[in-house]
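COMPLEX REQUEST
Ligand: 4AD
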Amino acid sequence: MKRTKIATVHSSNPPSGQVLIKGWVRTRRDSKNFSFIEINDGSCLKNIQVVADDGLAAYDQIRKLATGSSVEVTGEIVASPGKGQAWEVRAEAVTLVGDAPDSYPLQKKRHSDEFLRTIAHLRPRTNKYGATFRIRSALAQAVHRFFGERGFYYIHSPIITGSDCEGAGELFRVTALDVDNPPKIGGGVDYSQDFFGREANLTVSGQLSAELFALALGDVYTFGPTFRAENSHTRRHVAEFWMVEPEMAFCDLDGNMDLAEDLVRNLTGAIREQCKEDLDLFARFVDKSLPQTLQTVVESDYIRLPYREAIDILRSAEKTFEFPVSFGSDLQSEHEKFLTEVHFKKPVILYDYPKTIKPFYMRANADDETVAAMDLLVPGIGEIIGGSQREERLDILEARIKAAGMDVEQYWWYLDVRRYGTVPHSGFGLGFERLLMLLTGAANIRDVIPFPRTPGSIEF
Ligand code: 4AD
Ligand code: MG
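STATUS: Structure written out below.
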């Protein structure tokens, strides 16, 4: 017999008759002649209740089934007389697959997120983390659907690269040299003898590849892991995170902001539709204001405001900030919170940032002071999107690369697409985990990625 998923039993079209259920025991309680076993198989939040009577062959063993052990159950689907579920399974046979001794860390009680991080290999078996990772999966599929429906092509940008897109130097080196005894040249390591014949690193962004492909296929996106060796111990930074990076040819900053707003609104709407039951858990146990926040994200028009005006608002605010701002300051999380949670109470897109705080590739504005950058900020998290119109003018781009202290020769291919048939183009990066934090109300980014990589932590 084929296995029936518990999600199917609880669906609008449940199976009838005999089923085979396979999953893990959440709890068991015994009455005089029956044992009631709650089983979860990860397919949905709800368990299925299995009722085993004392006439069953292995009843002695059934009465010892422990939390965390895995079982196979064949039985009949019947309407449940009990409260809380429409259907239950009247067992005909219950087989223990893998036992779980008392040391199983997920005994029935609530555990802190901090503790569950120390057992990240088991935490997806809890209600909350099961829900988190089902939502994560649905969100990834919604990303591909969103772009597919709009005619964007999916590009696989390389993970190993020789460039530093953000120019921030937060690179994880990739090398095949013997690190204890590397070949030397001058005072340093001779990377010409390394695998690629020069220095290589894990990518911080797929943007540069996406740009090249946008100038060939029109509208494209990349969606993959990116890596940053920034030593940030915050609740919204990890060293390995996933980024969604669309890039559009013949598109200016306004078109870019339109896409960013459309994407966040659409993905949030999709998850609200598809993951109702899992989202409800977060609204009940994690963040009571979550339904209201998500409604605002889906239904409100986002504020669009030049960076300069945001600085004015912050400077004239009643609140005193730990980091005072002026034109040229990078906004801190406290400022982003003020704008999205206190002042506007909804998502805000800031644009036209000072060129001094943004990377080389952003298009210079006519004022010679700002670039056509945009960041999308949301309540509770702050920045979830960073993007820009790209500098498409060869001479200006060359000058920017030099001014950033980078090697122009190395970027010959990036410059080439400006040399041959250049066009205005724009794109952005959406932090996939940041969006998941918004959707679930999770306060810490470590709790929305299966195995978080942070400074000092590489377990699992
Ligand atoms: O603003 P960022 O640095 O932009 C870029 O990397 C551009 N090259 C993207 C592009 O235009 N194609 O990063 C984009 C987003 C941020 O807004 C944030 O949501 C997320 O990536 N992000 C991080 N998420 C988790 N941990 C980190 N350390 C992150 N750094 C950036
Ligand atoms: Mg940014």
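REMARKS: Residues 375, 383, 386 surround magnesium ion (ligand 2) (CB under 6 Å). The first strand starts at residue 18 and ends at 30.
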